[in-house]
Structure formats: C-alpha cells, structure tokens
Specification:
The structure is a single chain. Helices cover about 65% and strands about 10% of the residues. It is built from 28 helices and ten strands.
C-alpha cells in the first residue's frame, strides 16, 4: 500500500477522528482525576493509575478504530460494514462531542488552576511545615522523661536548620502530648501542615525510638519507623529521622544544611545526658531551675570540654539569670559572653551561640552594630531559631529605633513559636515602644489569654494603658502584677502610678521599701529612676539612670532613646549626655 493510500484509508476508517476524540476525552479524564480526586481525599496512586490507563489505552483505541466500525446494527468488522453500508459517514456529531469535551476539560483545568491550593501552601499554612510533638517516655524509670524530651528537642533542632522548612519551636509544642486526639486542631493552632510524634524507651545503654510523620489535615501517615540502637548511636538516629522527614516534605537541603543535620556534637554519652538534663531545667524558666541547668551544663563540659552546645546552654542560662532575679547583670552577663565565645571557638557555625553572643554584645557592651551582625549570622545559620528572631527584635533593633524591622522579627519569632507567652508579650512590648499603643494592648491581652498569671504581661499592659492616658486602668493592672509576683521593679511601677494619680504618700511608702528589698535581692536602679521622675524629681531620676549605666545594667539603659516612660527626661541635658555615652560608637 502506498503511503498516500494508507493515510486515506486511516481517514476513511475514522482512525483520525478516534485519535482526536480519544485525546480530548483522555485530557478531560486527567483533569477530573487531578482536580477532583484530591477534593475527595482520593490517594495520589489513583491519579497515577488513571493517567497510566489512558496512555496504555491510546494505541488499543486506534487498533479498534481500524478494525471495527459502529453501525446501526452494532459494531461490525470494517470489511463487513463496507459491504452493507458503502460510503457511510458518521456526519458531524463527533465534532460536537469533541468540542464539548474540550470545553469541559478546559473549564476543569482553569477551575483547578485558580481555586486549588498553592503547591507551597495548604490554606494559609506552608506545605513544608512541621511541629515535633513531645515524645512519650516509655521507660520504666520516670526520671528518663528528660531523655525523651531531649530526643524530641534534638530532632527539632536539626530540622530547624533547614531553611526550606518551617519548624515550630520547642516551647509551643510542649503544650501537647504525643499521640494527641485532635491533630487537625493542633496543627491549626501551631500553623503547620505536618506533625511528627513518637516515643522513646531507654534501658541502660539501649534506646528504642518510634516515630511517625502525619499529614494533619488528612490524618494520613506519611512515614513511620522504629530504631533500636546503642545509646552511642543516638545522634545517627536523630540525623536519620531529620533527613527522612526533610526528604518526605521535599525540602531542599544545601550542603551546609546536610552537614548540620548529620553533625555529632559529642561522642561522650554521659556528657550528652547531662546536657539533656540541663536543657530540661532551662526550659522551665525559673531562677532555681536555671541554677540547676547551669550545674548540669558544667558537668557536661567536664565530661567533654569540646562540647560546643553545652557551652551554649551555659551561656543561655547565664543570660537569663538576672531577668528572673537570680543574679546581678554585671555578674551574669560576662559569664554568658565567655560561654558563647568558647562555643564559637569550638564551632563557629552554632546559631545558638551567635544568638547568645549577639544579646551579650547588646546588653553588656552596648555594641549595637556588633550585636546586629551576630544576630544576622545566627538567623542565616538557623532561620527557624525563634529565640534569635525574638532577641534580635526585642534587643538591638528596638534599642536603635528600627521599629518596623523589630516588629517584623517579633512576628517571625511568634510564627515559629506561636504559643510562647514571652514572645507574644514581647511583640506587644515592640508595639509599645513604637508608640502603637492599641496594637500593644491587644497583644498583651493575647499573652494574658495564654497565661492569666503571667505577671510580665500584666505590667506591660499597664504601661501601654498608662501611655495611652488611662491611668486608672493601668493602676489596676499594676496591682494584679504585684499580686502575682514579688518583683521589686513591678512594685516601683505601681508606686510611680500612685504618684501620677496624686497619691504621693503611697508612692513614698513604696520608695522607702525598695532599699529594704535591695538588702537581700537585686533591685534595678531603673526602678528608683521611674519613681523619682513621677514624683517630679528629674535630677534624681537621671542620677539613678547614670548609676544603672555604671552598674552595667544593659537591659535598662539600651532603651533610653526610645522608652516612652522616659519621655519627660528627653530634654534634660544630663540625660542627653547619658544617651550619648550609651550610643557612642564602639571600637
């Protein structure tokens, strides 16, 4: 048969028509599978099966079109149909079928294109987002709870180093038990699409870790595995789990991130367990618990002097001590800085150490430019480290008046740690210093909703109300804060509110109490400054702020230029001279 005759025969036998019709209907079927199946949560393998069957069916359809014809009497072989119905034609009906199918398939395509979730997001939640819930302690010894928590924290920390992932911080996930009942609700509260949960069983030097990765929206198990290893191999297990999760979530890893995930911070199992105990108590955030954490971190360092993360833990504990009334800043800040620098000597790529050093440069050395560089380095190394964003925004950026950037960092920290009471409240503090009082008040109420007994949020709310002009409401909140905690600074805030309301005797009573309290615990000089300023004694207020500077109380003096509570002093020459000292360029 000549080639021209062959194509003519194809046309006569309607092979062309069948090919076009099959292609259009096949395209329609694929659109239905890809756009409609996910809506009904039909698995992806069903979509792939439909596509495969359509591809395989195409040559079969062409062979059938060549060999058979549809006639009024049913399907007949082509040779028989030619004898009975010579010169037959199907007319133009097939054209209308093709056009209709084409329009329907196009409609489905564009419907899916503009209404289906973005491939990178599920609703407003990034698809590459995960929360690692607390691991269940299956050990017979309840004291091993620190170990289960430590495994969870280590896996979370490794995942957090992957820039392509959104990883929720430890403090937010600690509110949930492993294997919870309502995963979709937890995922919604944390702003993630995926949940990793598991259990740990430790017996002497043997460890069993069970994990499962779950899509929270569909409750589909994406991956599960069990690991039985020696304690010395636990870092390899943590690395393997983190790498597998990143792979399943299709997160792109750089060479540096792959190295960070696989890093073994110590080969000494005793040092590792002491470090986990230190972090366990550090997370409790009280003065006595921070002291316990310091003891454990020191023991870990004794076991392994090259353990960088143990020095980070030590520095993090010292940096928080004065904030919980457990030490004077001039005593604890140098120790925090020394520990952070030692960690960086061992490994310059530890984001947590750059964060601690950055905060120390800000509050201890008043080196704002150097502090900003350290925080930027920390965030580049670990973009999911909520504390870096938190302290960056609430430290040097706020101090130098970069309010928009400080608020952006605070929001990013809250996105990574959405249930953190302190981050929620400190975002309110960012709004307060930026003079955005309504937003500050709203944010402090959110913190109080998370923890009604969090005195820090109450006195910050009181300051916002005071700055807005509602001094009576502020007084009520100051009183609540004093009832909830015996912090002498809050007592001073209450005293200055009394003074501004004309209750001078009440203010003087509180002023007289502060030296008595200072005999047995740290009282910031800033407390005296606020009281004297409210009593109309601006000269004494500046003297106390100068003393604060001399004492190295960086947490009090770094905000001299921006603190709305100090606005009445802004035109005082001595105050301006003090500001110039604080913000003098550092060598």
């Amino acid at each position: 048969m000549k080639l021209g005759s062959f194509f003519a025969e194809l046309k006569r036998r309607n092979v062309y028509k069948v090919a076009v019709g099959y292609a259009v209907v096949g395209w329609l079927s694929i659109q239905v599978a890809t756009q409609v199946f996910p809506f009904f949560e039909i698995p992806n393998w069903a979509v792939r099966l439909v596509v495969l069957l359509i591809i395989v069916g195409f040559p079969i359809a062409l062979v059938i079109a060549w060999a058979f014809e549809l006639t009024p009497e049913g399907i007949k072989r082509t040779e028989e149909a030619d004898l009975v119905y010579p010169g037959r034609s199907l007319g133009r009906a097939w054209i209308y079928v093709v056009i209709s199918a084409g329009l329907l398939s196009a409609g489905l395509f564009f419907l899916g294109r503009y209404t289906a979730p973005n491939e990178n997001k599920i609703g407003n939640v990034p698809a590459k987002s995960i929360a690692v819930l607390p691991f269940e302690n299956l050990s017979h010894d309840p004291d091993n709870a620190y170990f289960a928590e430590g495994i969870q924290d280590e896996i979370l920390t490794r995942l957090a180093k992957v820039a392509d992932l959104k990883v929720i911080s430890h403090t937010s996930t600690q509110r949930y038990k492993s294997s919870p009942d309502n995963l979709p609700q937890i995922a919604k509260e944390l702003g993630v699409a995926n949940i990793l949960e598991g259990s740990v069983q430790k017996s002497q030097d043997q460890v069993r870790v069970n994990v499962q990765l779950i899509n929270a929206a569909t409750d589909a198990h994406l991956w599960a595995d069990s690991f039985d290893r020696k304690l010395i191999d636990i870092f390899a297990v943590e690395s393997e789990i983190a790498a597998k999760v990143a792979d399943i979530l299709k997160a792109k890893l750089t060479g540096a991130e792959q190295h960070a995930i696989s890093m073994q911070p110590t080969r000494n199992t005793e040092a590792y367990q002491l470090y986990l105990k230190g972090r366990y108590f550090w997370n409790k955030r009280t003065g006595p618990d921070l002291q316990k954490a310091i003891d454990y971190f020191k023991q870990a360092i004794e076991k392994d002097p090259g353990y960088a993360l143990a020095y980070v833990g030590l520095g993090d504990s010292y940096i928080l001590l004065s904030g919980f009334g457990a030490a004077r800043p001039q005593d604890s800040f140098p120790l925090a800085e020394a520990a952070a620098k030692k960690a960086l000597e061992i490994d310059d790529n530890v984001a947590e150490a750059h964060t601690t050093l950055g905060f120390s440069l800000c509050v201890h050395h008043l080196d704002f430019a150097g502090s900003i560089r350290e925080f930027e380095r920390a965030i580049a190394l670990n973009p999911n480290y909520a504390t870096a964003h938190h302290w960056f925004g609430d430290g040097p950026l706020l101090a130098v008046g970069q309010f928009d950037r400080a608020i952006a960092e605070g929001k990013r920290a809250l996105e990574l740690d959405p249930l953190s009471v302190i981050i929620t409240a400190d975002l309110g503090a960012d709004f307060l210093v930026a003079r955005r009082y309504d937003e500050a008040i709203e944010q402090f109420h959110k913190a109080i909703d998370l923890d009604p007994r969090f005195y820090y949020a109450h006195w910050n709310l009181a300051q916002a109300l005071e700055m807005k002009g509602d001094l009576r409401a502020a007084l009520t909140e100051y009183k609540k804060a004093v009832e909830l905690d015996d912090d002498p600074f809050v007592l001073a805030l209450l005293g200055q509110a009394y003074a501004k309301l004309g209750q001078r005797d009440e203010a003087l009573k509180i002023l007289a109490q502060l030296p008595q309290i200072a005999a047995h615990r740290y009282v910031p000089s800033y407390s005296y400054a606020l009281l004297h300023m409210a009593l109309g004694e601006k000269g004494k207020a500046v003297e106390w702020l100068e003393r604060s500077y001399q004492e190295g109380a960086g947490l009090d003096v770094i905000f001299l230029k921006v603190d709305p509570m100090l606005d009445p002093l802004q035109k005082e020459p001595r105050f301006q001279a003090l500001v110039a000292k604080v913000f003098a360029e550092k060598q």
